[in-house]
User: What shape does this take?
Amino acid sequence: MKNKPKKTTATIMIVDDSPTNLSVLIDYLYNSGFKILIANDGESALTIAQRGRPDLILLDIMMPGMNGYETCQCLKQDRRTKDIPVIFISALSKSMDKVKGFSVGGVDYITKPFQQDEVLARVTTHLTIQRQKKDLAKLNATKDKFFSIISHDMRGIFTPIAGASDIISRIAEKYDDARLKKFSGMMVISVRIAVKLFENLLEWSRTQQIDMPFEPSNVSLTHLVNETMGLFQEHQKSKNIHIINDIIDDDLQVYVDDNMVKTIVRNLLSNALKFTPSGGKITLKAIKVDDFIEVSVSDNGIGINSNSIDKLFLLQNAKSNPGTDGEKGTGLGLILCKEFVEKNGGQIFVNSSVHYGTTVGFTLPEARKSP
Assistant: This one.
């Protein structure tokens, strides 16, 4: 007695007007463990696909009425069936026929007369790819939800801590207690570093999400830089570092995502402060270069050796060296800057000499003129 084939959860729809071809494919694929749906023409294939949602479609090209190319196009235009992989199976064997099949959305092309083992191998391969795509989509959805929850909860934790540390610092100033001022100042800096680390991790995680918003508009570079610099007044004062802002031209307008560029400037200023010793200086400049504005943040800090510069933007080499006051980091800052600069249509570069300082520059597209 012949054993019944072990059924899988995969359903294949075969679309062919030839009873012989249908019979051969149905018997072979059924015996290989697949569930089978059948359509004899393009019109019925669309209806069956919409209702049955097969995992894969084997589609003949030469059929009466709607041919296979037209059927595939309709499948790909319907949100209910657009993600179902379509393998063309046809006697048409010219390259132009195969190219057309791929151009309308097919994932593979089998020429008749076919070998049954070849059909099974291709079907199995594309079902595996489709399953992996679905698994990846689920993982990405889970990851995005996880980061969303972490973002919400961590912001709720950091906000009151940051506020409380500022209050304690002001109280210490009021009562002029040297020890209290010292430790409250240390706490303020530590909290701000923790907030920055969290923001970098959060921003980087958002760059890994498919639906990360990108909303460019014409922005005043001068206003953007001034607004961002205000975040570093206390840190600048505590390290006795002078920040010189030469970006004062109100005509410097760029077409960028405002939040992304603020993140870039914030990270570059934070890095410069981190690696510049007490008494040092940091300079911000901007010049017009063709249709771009080139922005630079320069310091006279400890610098970077030439062998390390090429590795600054590689995730696998992401690491953070302690700053001149022992400040810690994640190593994600410059990686994040590179991704955001390129997302905005610019490029980033680094020039540095050990003991002489570092310049990090990046370009941004000029503002778009009103029509």
